[in-house]
Known about the structure:
Elements: E1 3-12, E2 20-30, E3 35-40, H1 46-53, E4 61-66, E5 69-70, H2 78-84, E6 85-88, H3 101-111, H4 116-129, H5 134-137, H6 147-159, E7 165-169, H7 177-193, E8 197-201, H8 205-211, E9 214-219, E10 222-227, H9 229-232, H10 236-241, H11 248-258, H12 270-281
Parallel strand pairs: 3-8, 3-9, 6-7, 7-8
Antiparallel strand pairs: 1-2, 1-4, 4-5, 9-10
Helix pairs in contact: 3-4, 3-6, 4-6, 11-12
Amino acid sequence: MSIEVKNLSHIYSKGTVFEHIALEDVSFEVGPHDFIGIIGHTGSGKSTLIQHINRLLVPTSGTIVVNNININEPNVPMKEIVKRVGIVFQYPEYQLFEETVYKDVSFGPKNLGYDEEKVDFLVKQSIEIMGLDYEEIKDKSPFELSGGQKRRVAIAGVIAMKPPILILDEPTSGLDPMGRREMLDMIKNMNKQLGMCIILVTHSMDDVAEYADKIMVFSSGRLMKYGPPAEVFADSKFLADISLDVPQSKAVLERLKEEGYEIDTSAYTTKEAAKEIIRVFGK
Length: 283
């Protein structure tokens, strides 16, 4: 088991007039090769949760076990947590700081104590995993790159540390449709080909419908649902009640159903919805 969270709660400014419950009695398990999507309205607890999984925040109560280590035990060094959990925050390109792409991507593995040969291998591998030409960009300043390339370099710097768990907070923000698709395909490849456990935080129902194996739904600091996309998106009313939508493809099917067409509304991906529409209207 990669991650086991039990009865996790977090209260900001506890005991003051500004006290706010950000997470309340959250429990779940994540497997070593899972692709998990986390959805919820703004302020639902998503960002607070992911900051607990690599100990950027300490829980008010509850436990978090990552690869059989309770990460909030006082004797667990931060370096051991960083080896296990990589986290990519929104707009990671703003965190680039070195004079060359190579130096920026190598910063993490060097600090983990890898030798020069290992660092060279990890830097090259990570840059290429992100769909970039290593020889072409390794000596360039990261600030000379396009916005999309900068983001890929920033993510390469995290995966160069080889964490078995990778958390990404809105990694496609600001990207055009093609860049968005390419980024998500690369993330899915890390999950399938490298065996990394992926946790994707997003506001896009379409993205989690297409890529995630399971989805966590948060509202007001509580984990409301946790299951496969078909199960989560089966209840449109539940999602609407907590200010969330279904994927656009499912919304189209449901609208057609309302218009009186005999159509199956269980599809939730674009490909599945297209098949159903062709079945009904392609006669």
